[in-house]
Amino acid sequence: MIIKYWRKNGSFYFMKADFKYKTAYTDVIQFSLKDPWLFPKYKDDFAGYEGLRFYGWLFFYFGRVYTGLLYPSEAENETVKTLVDPQGHKWLFLPREKVVDFETVLSNIKTCYRNGKELEFTRNYHGERYDITAKLVDKK
């Protein structure tokens, strides 16, 4: 599901939500006539985006960067904007900067789902902020 779309010069950005794996990512497609890559290649951390591996050849380039995790919203009246999946469930976005060791979590998440596990989130309110904890449990 596309959450947000924007364009900057010859670059098109599509922020998407994957409710099955509870992840959010941004796909980047770029067309550029400046400095073409004559041979197919890739570049890591392109344009300062950590985790963005950019592939391309000649005038066409593309890449994907994971931007965070999605966790279910339990409250009826959330003060922040929620995402609603096709089944009507509400989700909140947790940016990658707030996840400890995001790359490890991301690399293990799909493997765990294939092996019959799923993520279960709990939120604890402490003063002015929430602490969010995720743990792997067997699918119900």
Secondary structure blueprint with pairings:
Layout: E1 2-8, E2 11-18, E3 23-31, E4 37-43, E5 53-58, E6 60-72, E7 83-84, E8 90-95, H1 102-114, E9 117-126, E10 129-138
Antiparallel strand pairs: 1-2, 2-3, 3-6, 4-5, 5-6, 6-8, 7-8, 9-10
Shape: elongated
Strand content: over 45%
Task: Sketch the topology as an H/E string, one letter per element.
Answer: EEEEEEEEHEE
How many domain regions?
2
- Assign a percent range to the helix content: under 10%
Q: Which structural category fits the helices and strands?
A: mainly beta
| Tally of separate helices | 1
Uncertain runs are: none
The assembly state of the depicted protein chains is single chain
Give a short account of the largest sheet: 8 strands, antiparallel
Number of strands: 10
**Rg from Cα:** 18 Å
Q: What distance separates the N and C termini? A: 25 Å
Mean pLDDT: 82
Walk me through the structure:
- With 140 residues, this protein is mainly beta.
- The protein folds into two domains: 2-66, no CATH class; 68-138, no CATH class.
- The chain has one helix and ten strands, in the order ββββββββαββ.
- The protein has one helix at 102-114; strands at residues 2-8, 11-18, 23-31, 37-43, 53-58, 60-72, 83-84, 90-95, 117-126, 129-138.
- Strands 1, 2, 3, 4, 5, 6, 7 and 8 form an eight-stranded antiparallel beta sheet that branches.
- The longest helix has 13 residues, at 102-114.
- The radius of gyration is 18 Å and the shape is elongated.
- The two termini are 25 Å apart.
- The mean pLDDT is 82.
